[in-house]
Amino acid sequence: MVRDDHAGSALAALAALLADETRAAMCLALLDGRAWTAGELARHAGVAPSTASEHLGRLVAGGLLAEERQGRHRYVRLADARTAQLVEDLAAHAGPPPAAPRTLAQAGAGSAMARARTCYDHLAGRLGILVTDALTRRGLLDQSNGFALTDEGVEWFTGLGVDLAAARTGRRPLARPCLDWTERRPHLAGVAGAALCGHALASGWCVRIGSGRALKLTARGRTALHTHLGIAPDALEAPTA
Amino acid sequence: MVRDDHAGSALAALAALLADETRAAMCLALLDGRAWTAGELARHAGVAPSTASEHLGRLVAGGLLAEERQGRHRYVRLADARTAQLVEDLAAHAGPPPAAPRTLAQAGAGSAMARARTCYDHLAGRLGILVTDALTRRGLLDQSNGFALTDEGVEWFTGLGVDLAAARTGRRPLARPCLDWTERRPHLAGVAGAALCGHALASGWCVRIGSGRALKLTARGRTALHTHLGIAPDALEAPTA
DNA sequence: CGGACGTTTCGGCGCACGCCGAAGTGTCGC
DNA sequence: GCGACACTTCGGCGTGCGCCGAAACGTCCG
User: Fold this and answer.
1) Domain spans of chain A, in order of start
2) Does domain A2-79 have CATH number 1.10.10.410?
3) Is the pLDDT of residue B240 over 70?
4) Helix (H, G, I), strand (E, B) or coil at B106
5) How many other C-beta atoms lie within 10 A of the C-beta of residue A227?
6) What pLDDT is stored for residue A169 in this prediction?
7) A82-104 pLDDT, tens digit each
8) CA of A212 vs chain B CAs: smallest distance (Å)
């Protein structure tokens, strides 16, 4: 009882950090996995710099955000992958209501965000689904009895020049499903998801669009996805399967 | 921007439901997977019945809880497994601080809760870990590249008289890891975890202690765990490995 | 039918918190 | 050094919300 009492206040304190609309908007923005300055977040959330400063202080004190001071700037980012996953999960649980994206302008070609973007540190959007499905189709990822890379999958990463065993750090799972809120199906996250995204950016398969989390698939990326995963070059542009 | 704005308020609204200590305590209590009456929850949380009634109204309206009226009673339970997982995840993220359970009285034999309990609808506590480890050791559960049942694992369930394919409903994963806040390691949750827990209760492997979520392993359960998983009969009493 | 009981509705109280603008601190660049 | 700039601290204001007790509502049981 005493124990649960303590757990109750800890849970409430954690939830309270995300229970404010301004702080929630900040955390969602930080889901792109990058560090933002306090001022950028203030403008993004539409509040005065002083207000943003107080919010960031709370989020850092609560352990949700990590900060790094550089000169007159205060950079903040999500504390770690585990925290990012928590925000994702909450957003996914809260998100479902807008079930009908019926606007023709949006449904037609789809926005750049819907096509390809990062979700903290891995690929998401239609590109994320495309890659996840291709991995599954080729027997590199097993989704039938859970969500795990097969031995062939690990070798596939090695062939790409990515050493997953070395990338594995701490308790973070090698592969886990991440359900984001535009596509409704899970895509690859975890150590392998992060490694793949890092490799894709490093190898020029895709580049960031502007300052946001949206990505653009390059010509090199199109051929790479075709040779490594058998994904048709125009698959990303085609209507959602 | 507009879109993220909406996502922000949705996230904040969801988090606000758990941001109150009283509501948090209620949700944690409901993690035992059973339905409680409004009065029970009021007493458990230490607030007036009128206050509890308002809180429950919010939680139900927010979709976290499902209610069932029976005569003059109002029974509530967590809305679904997905919601339970969300509360679990938040509690696990909030919990870690109490890192040192050094009290001799607790560390020695351990409380009944620490030994065996339910976590929503699956086994948790030392028993949960014991079973998960045994499944892994026997090659029925693969944790090396993710968290998934092997084909042998599915057959093992069949041998137990549990048809996992039939139990599989909707999008709920067959096997997923659940990290609870007394043991620090993941144990089996998802459809398979729920089926195993259901089988254990139905077959008299364990019984509920009182009205809470604590479980007691029976003599029959001890032999069953030994024959089916090779778990030593006194393993549950031994100090944490 | 009437009393016991679980639950709900309604005021009313008080605190906690989010917001801002103004003023202060520290860093950068000329 | 001296402005420009990013951020922080500090009052002060308003609102939202959690709490309770009193009273109303429904159900159950004798």
Assistant:
1) 2-79, 101-229
2) no
3) no
4) helix
5) 9
6) 72
7) 999 999 999 999 876 444 444 44
8) 11
How many Å apart are CA A102 and CA A140, to the nearest integer? Answer: 35
Q: Alpha carbon B220 to chain centroid distance?
A: 23
Q: Do B95 and A7 touch (CB under 8 A)?
A: yes
A18 burial (CB, 10 Å; 0-12 / 13-18 / 19+) is: buried
Which nucleotide's C1' atom has the smallest distance to the CA of A22?
A: C18
> Which pLDDT score is estimated for A210?
66
Counting every residue, how long is chain B?
241
User: Which spans in B81-175 are helix H?
Assistant: 81-94, 104-108, 112-115, 125-137, 151-160, 164-167
What pLDDT is stored for residue B185 in this prediction?
75
Strand C nucleotides in reach of protein CB atoms, 7 A cut-off: 5-10, 17-23, 26-28
Tokens 């075709």 belong to which residue? Answer: A226
Smallest Cβ–Cβ distance between A146 and the set B24, B27, B148 belongs to B148
Single out the residue of B211, B241, B28 nearest to residue B133, CA to CA.
B241
Lowest mean pLDDT among A96-105, A127-136, A146-155, B6-15: A96-105
Winning range, highest mean pLDDT, from A113-122, B140-149, B197-206: B197-206
CA distance B14 to A16: 10
